[in-house]
Amino acid sequence: DYECSSVHDNHLCNYASDGNTNNKWSGITYNLAQEDWLKANLGESKCMSSITIYLEHFPMSSPREIIDMEVSEDGHTWTKVIDDWDLTLPSTPEPIKEFKRDFAETTGQFIRITGRGDGNLVYINDFEVQTRQAGCTPDCAGKECGDDSCGGSCGLCTNNHGTTQCTSNLCQPTCDPGWGNCDSNNNNGCEVNTDISPASCG
Q1: Which of 55, 99, 112, 150 fits 70 for a cystine, CB–CB 3.0-4.6 Å?
Q2: Distance CA 68, CA 116 (A)
């Protein structure tokens, strides 16, 4: 269950956490004096201690966002757990950049992410909040993705040049023609253009 302050060009609220980094939520504000927010209902109170945000790189630009994160039990009274997190994409383009931030463990049913764009629209391709049930110890040993046995996640599979599935807690990428999974890292999908760099795939 997602709500957001605004939507730009049909980039809907729920696209921010649908497991597909090719989609995104985008607001309409684009300067540091304005804010857009995204609110998620986790369905029940959960313990949480970190968040991972995925952002795509746009050609000829280096997007930058300043992010705050708050947690609430009732959706009305909020506790800030992250303040002024600077997410700046590198000048060398990466299709998807992963940003991870730990914070003091807290409990809540709702989270709210507030962003301010530095000359670009506020957007999120995907995000994961690491959560667990009270009294449960997560088990991600040997797992790349999927359930951690405590209601949380062991990771998200990304593949900018093909499709991917999480099967038995392992990422299984399928590459588009001309692309290969040459580093044998299933988490980042098909990362090499074999038409340009055939030697990189052995």
Answers
A1: 112
A2: 9
